[in-house]
């Protein structure tokens, strides 16, 4: 009996990690396959009605992290090239002392974007929630998703799961210090994204009334 129990325990510790490993590979391959097309050049990026700019770290609600600065600069360049008409800044606003999207908007305006063409989504707490709300709240049907290369396939994949005709634009403008950590974390994030979009389908933390992306973005600036 004891010997059988030991065999069962040993099998569990062998088989369970193998299942987790195979599931991780499966979900990563699915997202890499279906999270496309992805472009690295503004000139070749197709025109869409809007761009979704995904949030990242800010300091003192004023300074953009290198990752976020590159996303916003890429979005501004895309807008000035006439490839998109509107920008949706989607990020976290956990407290009044931490607000990614207002910092993103302020920099985009400083760099030449008309404020009326910038919409703010303060409840983009994850990529999944950003895409859910982009479709549900802002009525987005097509978009360029702007983020870094390590993150872009998951972002496009999730956008498509919410019926957004999406393409990705890579915002890599420099070598990032923590790129290895970002890539490792992304492998696990893809597992979560696949599970949420296929199996769990949770509602986002907040919903709300529709704010059509075709309108004036300034209505979202003081929400």
Strand-residue proportion = 5-15%
Supply Rg.
19 Å
What would you call the structural class? Answer: alpha/beta
Terminal Cα span: 65 Å
Find the CATH topology: Rossmann fold
Give the strand order of the largest sheet, numbering strands 1, 2, ... along the chain: 1-8-7-2-5-6
Order of helices and strands: HEEEEHEHEHEHEH
CATH architecture descriptor: 3-Layer(aba) Sandwich
The helix tally amounts to 6
Summarize the amount of helix as a percent range: 40-55%
Largest sheet, strands/sense/barrel: 6 strands, parallel
The CATH superfamily is known as: HUPs
Question: What is the name of the CATH class?
Answer: Alpha Beta
**Averaged pLDDT:** 94
What general outline do the C-alpha atoms trace?
elongated
Show unreliable segments.
none
* Domain unit count: 1
Give the number of DSSP strands: 8
